[in-house]
């Protein structure tokens, strides 16, 4: 890493996508920091579903804690701090945005790096990964507890309600579609518009009329829960009570894209940040992963996106192999140039339990790194 940068990579966001990206970059020899404001959708999970190798009783908080410990064990930094600003040092220097040369190639100003302001401190990084996610729009109370009758992930939690009565809240096409999808798991599904008029399309209305889904238009007046805090039923303003074990509010998502917008990143019509298959955004040197980007909002998907972006950052920044043009400019790679990993990460690697040699008893990390040099 050049001395002019504090980090090779700064990851903004400490969810599954951001931590996966950080795990890859630090293990691939890049000085990495994760800035995590805390909270997030994964942290709210009562149980972890659909993550192979992770059992149901693992909470989101436990899952993320283990991930943070992994990143730190390889030499990555983790700081709980809100990132207030990310700016391009090229813009600060007056270089402007990367421009198209007319042949599909762009002159990159990414190598000048980025300035990250977090917790009132400034850090310069060669690359930035945005993993800021989104917040689900929450309906008005009365509501059951999240994870105990109020659920935001159909593909995660539908299994929980096989052959149980289920509600879907909302007035748009997405609410109607989720209600019809839930018929794959249970025969008792209601759409609750909560006093509002449906806004779904005529085609959706025709589909809904031809599926055994009830549309309940009255507002919810009260709620009943069992001794474990799980939803049992809703009471409506017309005096009726309907039993439900759980359900899904469908009111949209609030993307945390303030940093993306400040950097001028391209966004899709649905609010997500536009990326390629490796998480590269419309701005060179900036990557985006996880719920901030298009695709299924699932932990395994987010982890895969983080891995892809981490590998892409490594390929972008690794100095070797040196190209023929680089050899002409800089000369051949000498023995003193390698390995291309900082002394700190080198010392961590050779004593880590995941290293080929494993921890060597009786040798301090600094002494071992020097011996390997």
Automatic annotation (TrEMBL):
Pfam families noted in UniProt: Pyr_redox_2
UniProt biased composition (Acidic residues): 364-373
Keywords associated with the record: Flavoprotein, Oxidoreductase
Region feature (Disordered): 350-373
Domain FAD/NAD(P)-binding: 7-306
InterPro entries in the record: FAD/NAD-bd_sf, FAD/NAD-binding_dom, Ferredoxin-NADP_redctase_2
Gene3D superfamilies the record matches: FAD/NAD(P)-binding domain (3.50.50.60)
Single GO MF descriptor: oxidoreductase activity
Protein name, as recorded: NAD(P)/FAD-dependent oxidoreductase
Source organism: Halorarum halophilum
